[in-house]
Specification:
- β3 and β4 form a beta hairpin.
- The strands form two sheets. Strands 1, 2, 3, 4, 5 and 6 form a six-stranded antiparallel β-sheet that branches. The chain has a three-stranded antiparallel β-sheet with strand order 7-9-8, with helices on one face.
- It is built from seven helices and nine strands.
- It is an alpha+beta fold and 229 residues long.
């Protein structure tokens, strides 16, 4: 099947960046929280953030250092918080049908306000993607039929640029977790290129075939507890 999605990369420059939980807690969903100010169910789930670790940098790309502490208003409470000065934050994410148009994505970032912090939108990049991936419903049915109580499969994605590849992985992970959740099952996805050598070798041994840079491993479990590699 061919899916269509929109890839975005934004770079935000904060004159003063506080340790705001909406950015630095559950960092993998920061863009989702920015774009949706309240619970929106499946619409918010359609935003998949590729950036998992938010690391502020200075103007030459080095990791920002804490400049000091100051009072900061968070959820109507005044707290003391560490802050960075002139810090840049880069986020990459894909939209798989949230209902927000590319024009509205740009408009939302152009508000240049995250909570009580102002920022300058230094970079805004958008690409429309078409990616060929396995049919998620058919893939889940195969996993579901084999799970006793767990099953492991490998999926070979086509050779893709990094942002396309990560977007495809995000789509599969999001959709399979939705299907598994409805059946009270758990899905885990591992990207071969991200694994430690011994972890990758363990999975290759279980499936008796080597992996490539485009291989992803999917584990379906009837139990909620994560499966050990």
């Amino acid at each position: 099947m061919v899916i269509e999605a929109d890839f975005y990369r934004v770079r935000l420059r904060f004159k003063r960046l506080f340790a705001d939980p909406s950015i630095f807690e559950d960092q993998g969903n920061a863009a989702q929280r920015y774009l949706f100010s309240r619970d929106t169910g499946d619409k918010a789930v359609s935003i998949y953030q590729i950036t998992s670790d938010i690391s502020p940098t200075d103007n030459v790309g080095k990791a920002s250092e804490v400049a000091g502490t100051a009072r900061y208003v968070h959820r109507k409470r005044v707290v003391r918080s560490e802050y960075f000065e002139n810090a840049n934050v880069t986020l990459e994410y894909s939209d798989f049908g949230s209902g927000i148009s590319p024009t509205d994505h740009h408009r939302l970032w152009k508000k240049q306000k995250w909570g009580r912090m102002s920022f300058d939108l230094e970079e805004y990049h958008h690409e429309h993607l078409k990616i060929e991936i396995p049919d998620t419903a058919e893939l889940f049915e195969m996993l579901h039929a084999r799970a006793d109580p767990t099953t492991l499969v490998d999926v070979e994605l086509p050779e893709l640029p990094e942002n396309f590849f990560r977007s495809a992985v995000g789509y599969l992970e999001t959709r399979l977790k939705q299907l598994a959740g409805a059946e009270h099952q758990a899905i885990e996805i591992y990207v071969a290129r991200d694994l430690l050598l011994e972890e990758k070798q363990a999975l290759e041994k279980r499936l008796t075939r080597p992996s490539t840079q485009s291989t992803i491993y999917i584990i379906l479990s009837r139990a909620e507890a994560p499966t050990q590699l």
